[in-house]
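User: Please fill in residues for this 233-position structure.
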């Protein structure tokens, strides 16, 4: 995997989420009051999280799941409630620490293994399922495919992830988003046309034996993201 562009982007994301806007994201992922714009983002993320969880089995007992880009841990917690052994990793040590602090009382801490670092770290081991919610939306299409290829080598059943669909509305929102204070803005999202991503995935020989399955687009104000599921045949 030629991951030089992936590493460069990952470095910028780490700086943003861990040093520039950690407090903003901590508030967004809580139930604290936020602006109307951020409220639409919060609502969209809640709907997307539920969509990705719906793509997973209701009973995850005995399954090992990677939450790639876990943020403050909401999805990891729900997967653990279904019986999964979860490995939750994020680039931001600050957000990972917050995820540990927010762990509900009904969750056995031993069921979620928190890490800060690279989702592609081979030392994380092998998985039955991988979930990457809004952690690949900042990467170009070719890097998204490279990440999925690397994860597929260690995944047995399914990978569900999100990408930023290329739409006129999303392009407009990105333009308007430039009016926000720079310190509160994430590194640019990289919109990808769905047909382009499907073509690249289908053409990737390393993904032979995998099939593109369900997809769902979630739009909520300033939040637009699309789920896509890959299953091993």
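Assistant: Residues filled in for all 233 positions:
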């Amino acid at each position: 995997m030629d991951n030089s562009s992936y590493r460069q982007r990952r470095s910028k994301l780490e700086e943003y989420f861990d040093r520039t806007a950690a407090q903003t994201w901590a508030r967004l992922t809580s139930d604290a009051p936020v602006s109307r714009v951020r409220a639409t983002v919060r609502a969209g993320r809640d709907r997307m999280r539920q969509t990705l969880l719906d793509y997973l089995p209701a009973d995850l007992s005995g399954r090992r799941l990677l939450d790639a880009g876990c943020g403050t841990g909401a999805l990891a917690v729900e997967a653990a409630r279904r019986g999964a052994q979860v490995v939750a990793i994020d680039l931001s040590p600050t957000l990972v620490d917050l995820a540990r602090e927010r762990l509900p009382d009904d969750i056995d801490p031993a069921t979620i293994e928190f890490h800060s670092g690279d989702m592609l770290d081979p030392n994380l081991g092998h998985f039955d399922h991988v979930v990457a919610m809004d952690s690949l939306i900042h990467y170009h299409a070719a890097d998204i495919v490279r990440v999925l290829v690397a994860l597929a080598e260690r995944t047995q059943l399914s990978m569900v992830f999100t990408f930023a669909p290329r739409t006129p509305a999303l392009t407009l929102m990105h333009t308007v988003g430039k009016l926000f204070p720079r310190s509160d803005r994430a590194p640019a999202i990289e919109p990808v046309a769905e047909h382009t991503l499907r073509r690249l995935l289908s053409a990737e020989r390393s993904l032979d034996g995998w099939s593109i399955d369900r997809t769902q687009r979630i739009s909520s104000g300033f939040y637009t993201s699309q789920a896509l599921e890959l299953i091993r045949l």
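For context: The chain is about 40% helix and 20% strand.
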